[in-house]
Fold this sequence. Notes:
The structure holds two protein chains of two kinds. By secondary structure, chain A is α/β, with parallel strands linked by helices. Chain A is built from seven helices and 17 strands.
Amino acid sequence: MSNHTTIAVAMSGGVDSSTAAAMLVHNGETVVGLTLQLWDQTRLAGKHGIPDAPKAGRCCSLDDVYDARHVAEQLGIPYYVVNQEERFEKDVVRPFVDEYLAGRTPIPCSLCNNHLKFDQLLQTARSIGADSIATGHYAVNEFDQKRGRWILKRPADTAKDQTYFLFGLTQEQLAHTLFPLGSLTKPQVREVARERGLKLAEKPDSQEICFVPGGDYKQFIAAYLEEKGEQLPETAGELVASSGEVLGRHEGIASFTVGQRKGLGVSSPSPLYVLQIDPASRKVTVGADQELATHTLRARQLNWISIPSLTAPMRVRVKIRHRHEPAWATLAPSGADEAIATFDEPQRAVTPGQAAVFYDGEEVVGGGWIV
Amino acid sequence: MPRVYMDANATTPLLPEVVEAMRPYWTEHFGNASSIHMHGQTAHRAVDHARETLATLFNCRESEVVFNSGGTEGDNTAIFGLLRAGDHLITTSIEHSAVLQAAERVAKLGVEVTFVAPRASGLIDSADIVSALTPRTRLISVMLANNETGVVQPVEAIGKIAADAGAFFHIDGVQGAGKLALDVKRFGCHLLSISAHKMHGPKGVGAMYVRRGTPVESLLVGGSHERRRRAGTENVPGIVGLGKATELAMESLANGTIDRLADLRDRLEAGVLALSGTRVNGGRAPRTANTTNIAFENVEGEALVIALDLKGVAVSGGSACHSGSTEPSHVLMAMGLDKNAARASLRFSLMKTATDADVDFALQVVPQAVERLRALSPVAAGTLG
């Protein structure tokens, strides 16, 4: 694929993006390494129960920049850290906080992919003289001559499939994006990393949301608002059964997510789950597991990948959260920028704020945000 | 690919004469300058010799020269060594962070601190220093030349104000040394800090002028080195390197090298200004000969720095000590630039060894990179919510 163009690789300091860079260099490509500095891990230190000296080893920590720089040096490629903290806060962190406060359950990784990892990175890459970008995502991106479209597909390693977080990519972005790891499994990636002599071949995967230390998002939201000098909005209200019966009170809707079982503060002979969060009335409705199941979902802010637009009902499989096995449904347009998926079998815990991604076989048809 | 280095305000390479002067002091003349024996005496003489050179540079007594680890230590020493709770410090909002952060620390310990802002020209108006005076003002700390814009501050006028007010006066001379003639008597300062690596000397060594009788407390305690003003075994090779670099710096000032540097800088500046939507930050004030700070409309400075580096031109967006930070240059913001203009500004700082060919190369690369960035802004790629 080489024709003397320059590829900017987004390097996080992890094994995946490091290996992606190593593969491109090995193929003789001209590569520049970039790390997006997105969040200062020490920023909220000491606030609201967050330790004064947070643990290292997360996204954007100095340790990760150290690792990325080391890999770049080993590969003999130019490497730069690009500061995008302001944009990350505006486009990812603030919406993340606001979504929780509004009773929804956001996915910051998708926002980050849409706004930072692709949109901004591509712009930065072009600014510095590169033509395309590459990342360590597990996904396949191919141009289909017949349809004249770039098609995003599930990767060889279905357990590592990250297409769910990539549904927002435009044709323009896909046309300038490479996913070198799409045809490999994670063990194969580690093997390549070992072959290329990368010291971080055995580095553990990161799992949690990169800017939330320890994964405690409630603590993060409280600390963030404290830093901003804002009050945690008063969202206490009633905890009700689906019959409407009042079971008790809760301290704020931001503490709940649809499908949650723990921490409801009421006792019941059978397990109770959060069914619905209504930000207007501040009511949190709870009920039995089977009540969580729904037949339809509505999605908005749609992006289409394998098709130009949805004009007629289409059979697809729908993935409604990261660890969800896509379920058969019929997808139909319902007005401007909205689609309704009707599942063949009811699905558990359809959660507003999460993404619904539509698949046709291995291909990503498109996706949108659940409302 | 040719590489041109235009970031001398971040650091400079050692000149070959400096390397040669230092060489014997790593191995052959390795002695501790405080030892009685011959090894120690050889080292001690070398330090004395450097001290004479620095005294000439500062126009002070040899006993008023204190060697240290560089600019940050000098700046910190002035502030931590003179101020106690209840005192008042006047400094400026365009100082290096070695002064600003030290000032913020003493502010937490009960020192009252006034940060005087520059005028839009980048110059501190000495009348603003006068207005900031209080009966408790113990120290005034102002830089000689700004690291980002090169603007030379009116230190003589401020020295007189300090004398009249009975306050101590510290000058951060890091960016002035080697580019301007230093004269602590003319400046009327009690303390002046410099760093070797900004003038083709080694990193990790610097010197401070401390006027006799100035009650500045040492940051480091231990041995009785440097007349009890700075404990720690003398960095003999470093001090020798600083001495040699100082000698060469004084030569460059005397023989017209620095004036020639201003011509090169002016040619570079004029060439870049031929591009539309560009202007010089601090261009109307007196400046050091090697520095120009240029705002490029509709360009993201960080991307331009990288693009230029990949094409072989090394420059910086503001101060190297702040790279990686979110905030745009505090210096440019204090001069009244908005965030976008501050972020779109680049510093070109030439070494005294710069050549016409260096400037030609930069003038070939910079316009291309700027045009490319502007063509992409705003980029066609869309954003999804």
